Write the C-alpha cells for this entry.
Amino acid sequence: MSKLIPLYAQIDDATLEAMASKGIVRRGRADAVNVRFEAIGADEIVGTIEGATVRLDDKGLAKARCTCPAATTCRHKIAIVFALRTQAGEQPAAPAVETDWPARLATFDRKTLLNAVGKTGLREAIRLFALAEAATIHPGGLSLKVVLRLSAEEIEVAVPAEGDFSSVVSGLPERRRPAGHAAAILAARRHFGHETIEIDETDTVVDQKAFVPDGPLLAAMRDAVCRAYSQGFAVPSRALEERLMLLSVSSRAEAMPRLSASLRRIAEGLEQRRSRSVNHDPVELLREIAFAHALLHAVSHTSDDARLRRLAGTVRAEYEPIGDVGLIGLGATLFETIAGAVGVTGHFAEPATGRRFTATLARGTTHDTRFDPRAAYRTQSIWGHTLARLSSATFHLSGAHASSTGRLSLSQTSRAEAIQPFKPGPEEIAGWARDRSGPLADLAHMSWPILADHLARCFAPSLDAPPLSAQPVILLPSRIAPVTFDDLTQRLRWPLMDLSGAWISLTLDHDDEGRGLGASRIAALEAALGDGGNKRPFAIVAIARPEGGKIVLEPIALWGETQTSLDFPDRIPAQGADVVSRLMAGLRRRVTQFAPPPPADVTVRQTSQLLQAGVDALIGFAEAGLHSPAQERLLAPMAKTYQLASLTPLAQLFSRTVASRGSDASSAALASAQGLFTLQSFNSRLQIWT
C-alpha cells in the first residue's frame, strides 16, 4: 500500500469541513463512488472524477492540485479523500491515546507563532482574535476545530493532533491563512487557560509621536497600484495579487492602515477578476485603484503632520473606547449582500452629541446556514439584552467601544443599563429639528432643502476620512401623499411634503415574485398605513444612502401613536406573489392628484451618463493594455466631449492621459478616474421638487 493512502485516509470530517464546508463534504462523500484512480504510487496519487483530475503528494490536501477552476478546496479533492478511506479499508479512527490538547496548544508559543507568521502576521492574528465576538472550540480525536465569529463572517480552522503550524488547515484564501490560523490558535490557547500572547512594545514599529512616510515603500506601493491598472484588467495574475498583499502586510505598512486596507481590497478585486467571479465589479475595482493612487499621492506630497495622520489612519484602531454613552434606539433593518451574507443592524443616536451608531448581527450563509437574522433580532443577546428591545429604547451603554464609522463593538465587557421604552412624541422630535444649534439638528428634519444640504455634506468625498455608506434621518412631513408605484424606476414611491411646500420621495425596491426584503417591506408599509393607529405617522425614520448618482431615502420605521418597524412589524402582513401583485396593482391605479410627480432631472441624468461614459472608457483602455490606439479611440473623444460640456477639469485630465506614454499613462488615467468618481459623488443629491 502506498504510504500516501493512510496520510489522506486519516483526515477526519472536522478537518475537511474546516477546509471547505459541510455541504461540500456531503457532496464529496456522495461523489466518492465515482472516483477512478489512474495511479497510486509512492510519491503521487492521481484520481479523476467527472472530468476533473486531482493530484496528491506528501505535502497534504491543502497543496493538492485539481484541474477544476475552484480557487479553494473543491469537492473533487474531498471525494478523493473519501475514496482513499475506502482503499484503506476503514474510516479514520481516533488515536489509541486521547490527544492532550492543552499540551498540544502549549507547543504553539509566541516564538513558534512569530517564526511561522512573522511580526506582522501575529499582529493581524491578535487583531482578528480581538475582533471576534465569540470563539467556539470543539476538541476531537484527530483534530481540534476552532470557529471565530466575526461581525461579517466566521473563520473555521482545524488544528490536527500532530504536526507543526503548516499542518493547520482551513478554507481561507491562501493569503489569509497565516493570520487566520494564528488567531484560531490564540483562541484555543485561551480556551485551555494558557497565557495570552502579545507583541512586545519593542516590536512596535509605529511611532505615534512622529509619523514619517516611508519613501521607498510609497514608491513600491505606487508602482504596484499602477500595475494593477495597466495589467490587472488585461491580464490579471496571481503574482500581482501576492505583491499587493505582501506590501499591505509589511511591517512598514502598519503605519498606514488605510493604504494597507486599500491594497488588500485591490488584491481581492483582482483575484475575483482572474477567477471570473460573479461578484466581480470592474467599476468598483477601478474606484479602489484610483482611490489608492490618490491617497498615495496625497501622503507623498503632504507635510502637515495632522493631515498625514488622517490620510494614513495611523492612530485609528478598529474599535476604540468611547466611555459610557446614553443612546436612543431608532429602529433596526435586515440586510442581505450579493455574496450571501445576511444580518440585522440596529441604529442608535447619542442625544448628547448627535453622533449615530450601529450594532450588527450577521453571518455569511456559506458559513452558517442556520443563522436567521429575524430570530437573532429577537433572541440573541448583545450587551445583556436583545436587539429587539434595545432598538426601540433609551439606555445607558457602559464600557462602549466603537469604530471610526460608528459601529459599536458587541464585546461582552459592554453592558446596557437603565433601559426604558422609547416613546417619541411629535413635540419632542419637532424640538430636535427646530433647534438648529442643538446636537440632534442633523438627525431630525422639517425642511427638505436643509436635509439635502446635510446629506450632501455627509456623503461628500474626502481623502482625509472614509466615506459614509448610509445615514439615518428622522423626517417630519407636513403632508403625506399616498404610496404609489413608479413604473419607470420599478420602485415604490412615497412622496412627503415639508412646511414650505417642497416634496421629496422615499423609495422601496419592488420584487415581482413577492419575495425578498423589498416585498416584505411593501406589505408591512401598506398594512401600517391602513391601520388606524398609524394611518398618519408624524415622523418617518429613513436610511439615506448614495446610489447611482443620487441620494435615496428608504423608510425603516413609522412613528405615530404606535411605532412600526417595516422589517419587524408587530403584525406579520400577508406575503407572496399574489398578495404583493394585488398591492402593486392598487398602487399603480392611484392618481397623482395628491402630490406632483418628480420632474425628470435631465441635467443630472446627462451629467451622470457623461461621467459613466468616462469610467467605461478608462476600463476599456486598461483592458486594451494601455495601447496607443486605444488612447485615441477611447479617451480622445471623451476629452473633447467634456470640453464641450464645460467640464473643463475632466477635459484637461483626459487630454493629459491621451498625451501620456509608458508608465505615466497609468498615473494619468488613474488621476482621471479619481476626478470622475469625485465628481460623481458631488453630483449625488437628494431630489427636491415643488
User: Anything to note?
Assistant: The radius of gyration is 28 Å. The longest helix spans residues 110-131. Confidence is low (pLDDT under 50) at residues 91-96, 201-209. The chain is about 40% helix and 20% strand.
